[in-house]
Write the structure tokens for this entry.
Amino acid sequence: MFKRVNKSILTAALLFAASYGLSTTPVSAADSCGYFAFAGAFGSFETANQRANAIGGAAWGLDYSNSPNAGRGFWVVAKGPGSREEANQWKHEYRAVGIGDAYVANRCFYGE
């Protein structure tokens, strides 16, 4: 399921770039690096995805990241990647909907 979500996000980004005349050079999943606002960790993709749909963001697999919690089977709800300023804004959006422990971190999420 993660692969399908990740490919959909990449496809949408490439279509957006193409529509504005930007380079559509294929990118790797390692290009999903930057600042993220995090709003919770869950033991299953389904639970994380439900939360992401409810509060915004996407479900990301920590096992495919440089997180210190990689390899533990967690899925996180996050918005990103972006600049530190963007991630801080997303963190404030999460806190405004009741996610008091939302935080910002610089991470990379990798594909296959």
About this structure: The first helix runs from residue 2 to 19. Confidence is low (pLDDT under 50) at residues 1-29. The helical segments are 2-19, 45-55, 84-96.
